[in-house]
Amino acid sequence: MVITKEHISDVVKSYDLENITIATICSHSSLQIFDGARKEGFKTLGICLREPPKYYDAFPLGKPDEFLVLNKYSELLDHIEELKAKNTIIIPHGSFVAYMGPEIFVEMDLPTFGNRLVLEWESIRKKERQWLVGAGIHMPDVIEDPHNIDGPVMIKYDGAHGGKGFFIAKTYEDFMEHIDTTKTYTIQRFIVGTRYYLHYFYSPIKDTGYTLSKGSLEMLSMDRRVESNADEIFRLGSPKELLEAGIIPTYVVTGNAPLVARESLLPLIFELGARVVEESIKLFGGMIGSFCLETVFTDDLEIKVFEISARIVAGTNLYVSGSPYSDLVEENLSTGRRIAREIKNAVKLNKLDEITS
Length: 357
What we know:
The protein is an alpha+beta fold. It has 2 domains: 5-135 and 194-225 and 260-354, D-amino Acid Aminotransferase, Chain A, domain 1; 146-190 and 227-254, no CATH class. The chain has 11 helices and 13 strands. The chain has helices at 5-13, 30-39, 80-85, 94-100, 102-107, 118-123, 125-134, 172-178, 239-244, 266-284, 335-349, and strands at 21-25, 43-49, 66-70, 88-90, 153-157, 167-169, 185-189, 194-203, 210-211, 216-229, 251-258, 289-297, 303-309. The strands form 3 sheets. Strands 8, 9, 10, 11, 12 and 13 form a 6-stranded antiparallel β-sheet that branches. A 4-stranded parallel β-sheet has the order 3-2-1-4. A hairpin with a 5-residue loop joins strand 12 (289-297) and strand 13 (303-309).
C-alpha cells in the first residue's frame, strides 16, 4: 500500500500535538536530531537493532528518551500503532532510507518530516538529473555509452551508499575492469575543482528571510567529505605508480571537514538552492526541510552541482552547536534543532500537515 499525503494528514489531525515524539534510526545524524528535539521540548525515540547502541551512554544530551529495539528494520511496520499512540514523527536521514529500503519507507504509515515523494527523484539518477537540469543547474556531462569515455569520468551507482563502489575511469577498458553490471549506474565527466557540500533548509511555512514563491530558504552550513582512501592514497605515488602496485582509489565517506565559502559567492549559492526548491515545487509539490547540494567550485568561481541529497546529511554533524552561517540566523542552531523548530512552529501555526507526508 502506498501511503498518501491525505492519509498522513488525517493521522496528524488525530495526534496530541502537546506530546509529539521525534524518532529516527540510531545512525548517521541521529545524535544531533535527538539533541535538537530535546532542546525544543520534544520526546525522542531511537530505533535500533538487537540492543541500544552503548555509545549513546557517552553522549547523554544526544541519547533518546527511549529505544524501540528490532531484530530487523522491516519489523518497524509491526509497531506502527504503538508509534502512533506516542504521536510519533519520523525524521528520515541517509541511513534511515538505506537500512529501511525504499519499499518499506514508502509503505510506512507514520507521519514523516518532509515530502517522501522526493525519494524517487533523488535516488534515481536520471530523474535527479531531470530535476536539476530543469532548474537550470549546471551539471557534469553524462556519457551514455562507455565506449565514448575519452577522459576522466566518475561512475556512480543509484541510491545512497556513502560513496561505496564509486570509481574513476579514463578509458573503456578501465570502466569494464571495475563496473558492476548488476547495478544501475551513471557515468559523469570528472570536474576539476574543490568539493563543497552546501547544507540548506527550506521552510514552506516561513514567510521571512530569503523568501521564495512560497516559504523561505536558509543556508545553515557547508562541509567537505573525507573519503577513504582517495584523500590520502596519492601520498604513495603517482596514479601510474599506484595502478602498477594494484592500488585503486575508493570513495567511501569516513568523515567530514568544515568549510566556509567566499562571501562573494553567497548570492550564487542562494540562487542555486532557490532554483532547486522552485523546480521541486513544480515537479512533486516541493521538498521540505534540510537538503544538500553536492558541488564543485572551479577556479573560475563557477559552481557545478553533481548531486542532491534531499534530507539531512552527515556533514551537518560538524555543527551541533551551530556554524558560521547558522549562528547568523540564531546562535547554537544545528540542522537537527532546525528540523525540530520547524515541527514546533508548524504545531503553533496548525500547519503540521504541510511539512509531513
